[in-house]
Each structure stands twice: as structure tokens, then as C-alpha cells.
């Protein structure tokens, strides 16, 4: 059992909790909780830390955890050490170090009519986690993120995805304008939301290849990015509400696209 917070491996995990640079150096990220452990692809798990006080009242889940632990490297740690490495207020007592996923743009474009989100400078990790989770729920083919967008492996983002981070392909782009041009070459229509647009979001056809541009929480999309879109649209607002946050707006657009595609089938 590891009982010292000064243990070298424990120090590495703490750095990974706190710094994106450390996660990049380790080429790995952290996930906490029973659900995240059970959903993690076994081949991606580098190591597991489990608290000496870990317990589970659900017999079926407890059995599943015990069975999976046989296939991965596991270290038991003291309750004090686990509190040190945990990023949650009420730790469940199990934490995984998961190898990072690496995707190419082509991994997002293998379907004939892909459904994509393009995120420009999204800053809030929780917002990003919501977007990833909503994306999987709506059947998205992948996310394209600007380099200034939050780290998808930020612990708060990972928690917000509720496991979707394991399954939704993503690609960080050095130059969004170049990526948008490549999408257009593949006949994927790019849509931008703008409050002054004349047409509502639910009047467009998203059954062909479609990509939605979502901008920064405070400033929205940059003008030069909006100008690259094929179509401009708005999400109509009632009352005194001026706009939706990035996570909610993404879900509204994606689920309209998903609805249209279900109806067409």
C-alpha cells in the first residue's frame, strides 16, 4: 500500500490533476469513479489507484470492478493519499490513469455525411464536457477544436463527459480556417449561429454533411470565422434572454440534426 503523499508516482498524478502540460508529458489523463473505471477501454488503462476504504454496496457493480481489476495494474493507497490525488469533493475511491487518445482529421470524416462540431476558443472545461456528452448522445462523428479551446482532458471536462471522452473522436486544429476549407472540399456545409441572421436553425437541412461553428462563451465567433460559414442562422430567443451558453446551443443544434436524420431514415 502507498501511504506517503511524497511517493514519486503520487506526485506525478497530482501534477496531472493540476496541469495540462503534465498530462501532455505523460500522454495520459485521469478519470475518477466506478462508472468511469468500468467504461474505460481496458487497453487504454495504464494504472489504477484504489483507496483502502473503497467499498461498493451494489453486488453486481462490485463484482464487475473486481473482475476488471484483474486485467489492469492496480495500486492500493491510503485514504489520505487518495484524498491527495482526487479532484472531487466526495471521492468514490477509485482513480484511473488512462492513455490519451490520438485522432487524425480523417477519423472524423469516414462517414458519407458526417455530423461535426467546430469549437472556437471554448474556455470553460465544464461547458466542453457538456458538449462532448451531448455530441455522443446526438450521434456526432467528431469535434474539431481550436488550439485555444480548453483541454479536453481537464479533470472537470472529463467528469462532465460522463464517459463520452472515451468514445467521441476529436481533433485540435492549428488553423480553423484551413480545416473549414478542407471540409468544404468534402461537400460538408458549415453553419454559424448569429443573432442577426434571418433564418432560424430548424429551417435548414442537416441530412447531408454538416458542421456547426460554436464560439467563445464571452465573445462568440470571430468575424473572420463566421465569414467562412456557408450558412448563417439563429436560435430564436423568447423573453429577455439574449443567447444560450455554448453547451446548450450545441445540444439544440445537434439534436435538431439528429431528429432530421432519424426522420429521413
Task: Write up this protein.
By secondary structure, the protein is an alpha/beta fold. Helices cover 36% and strands 18% of the residues. The protein contains 10 helices and 10 strands. It has helices at residues 8-18, 20-26, 34-39, 59-69, 79-85, 125-138, 155-161, 176-185, 223-226, 246-264; strands at residues 28-32, 45-51, 74-77, 94-99, 115-119, 142-146, 170-173, 189-193, 210-214, 231-233. The protein has a 6-stranded parallel β-sheet, sandwiched between helices. A 4-stranded mixed β-sheet has the order 1-4-2-3. Strand 2 (45-51), helix 4 (59-69) and strand 3 (74-77) form a beta-alpha-beta unit. Helix 1 crosses helix 2 and helix 6 runs parallel beside helix 7. The longest helix has 19 residues, at 246-264. It is elongated, with a radius of gyration of 20 Å. The termini are far apart. The mean pLDDT is 95.
Indicate the topology.
Blueprint: H1 8-18, H2 20-26, E1 28-32, H3 34-39, E2 45-51, H4 59-69, E3 74-77, H5 79-85, E4 94-99, E5 115-119, H6 125-138, E6 142-146, H7 155-161, E7 170-173, H8 176-185, E8 189-193, E9 210-214, H9 223-226, E10 231-233, H10 246-264
Parallel strand pairs: 2-3, 5-6, 5-9, 6-7, 8-9, 8-10
Antiparallel strand pairs: 1-4, 2-4
Amino acid at each position: 500500500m502507498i501511504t506517503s503523499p511524497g511517493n514519486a508516482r503520487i506526485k506525478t498524478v497530482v501534477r496531472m490533476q493540476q496541469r495540462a502540460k503534465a498530462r501532455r508529458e505523460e500522454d495520459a489523463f485521469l478519470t475518477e469513479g466506478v462508472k468511469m473505471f468500468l467504461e474505460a477501454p481496458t487497453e487504454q488503462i495504464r494504472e489504477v489507484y484504489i483507496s483502502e476504504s473503497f467499498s461498493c454496496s451494489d453486488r453486481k457493480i462490485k463484482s464487475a470492478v473486481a473482475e476488471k481489476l484483474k486485467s489492469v495494474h492496480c495500486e492500493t493507497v491510503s485514504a489520505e493519499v487518495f484524498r491527495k490525488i482526487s479532484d472531487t469533493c466526495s471521492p468514490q475511491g477509485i482513480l484511473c490513469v488512462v492513455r490519451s487518445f490520438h485522432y487524425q482529421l480523417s477519423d472524423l470524416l469516414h462517414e458519407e455525411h458526417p455530423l461535426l462540431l467546430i469549437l472556437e476558443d471554448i474556455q470553460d472545461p465544464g461547458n466542453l464536457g457538456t458538449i462532448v456528452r451531448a455530441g455522443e448522445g446526438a450521434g456526432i462523428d467528431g469535434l474539431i477544436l481550436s488550439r485555444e479551446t480548453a483541454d479536453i482532458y481537464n479533470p472537470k471536462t472529463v467528469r462532465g463527459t460522463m464517459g463520452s471522452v472515451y468514445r467521441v473522436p476529436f481533433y485540435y486544429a492549428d488553423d480553423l480556417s484551413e480545416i473549414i476549407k478542407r471540409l468544404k472540399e468534402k461537400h460538408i456545409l458549415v453553419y454559424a449561429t448569429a443573432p442577426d441572421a434571418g433564418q432560424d436553425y430548424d429551417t435548414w437541412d442537416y441530412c447531408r454533411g454538416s458542421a456547426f461553428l460554436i464560439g467563445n462563451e464571452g465573445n462568440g465567433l470571430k468575424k473572420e470565422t463566421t465569414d467562412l460559414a456557408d450558412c448563417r442562422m439563429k436560435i430564436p430567443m423568447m423573453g429577455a434572454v439574449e443567447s444560450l451558453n455554448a453547451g446548450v446551443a450545441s445540444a439544440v443544434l445537434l439534436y435538431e440534426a439528429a431528429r432530421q436524420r432519424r426522420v429521413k431514415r
